[in-house]
Amino acid sequence: VDNPSTYATYALGGFINDNPQPAIVYGDANGDGSVDISDAMLVFYHVAKKESISWDALLRTDADKSGDVDIADAMKIFYYVAKKIDTLE
């Protein structure tokens, strides 16, 4: 049985979500809430087929929104960490 506290409730003409979803941190391959060199390296390893990353991490690390995580995404995350670009979105 599902826990009813996870469902949105209705109050005064609108729905209230008691358990809001956390914000997506684009580029965060390891899921720790920040983007750093370890995220860039995980994407490089994924592209090189040395390590796979989770499905939700794939969604967060598709930096160029091409539908595929590839070397361009790894480089964009690396440039973001190196402060060569200002945003991943």
Strand content: 5-15%
Provide mean pLDDT, rounded. Answer: 82
The N- and C-terminal alpha carbons lie at a distance of: 38 Å
* SSE string, helices as H and strands as E: EEHHH
Could you give a short description of this structure?
By secondary structure, the chain is mainly alpha-helical.
Blueprint of the fold:
Layout: E1 9-11, E2 14-16, H1 37-47, H2 55-61, H3 71-81
Antiparallel strand pairs: 1-2
Helix pairs in contact: 1-3
Name some characteristics of this structure.
globular; 89 residues; mainly alpha
Structure write-up:
- This protein is mainly alpha-helical.
- It is built from three helices and two strands, in the order ββααα.
- It has helices at residues 37-47, 55-61, 71-81; strands at residues 9-11, 14-16.
- Strands 1-2 form a two-stranded antiparallel ribbon.
- Mean pLDDT is 82; it is low at 8-12.
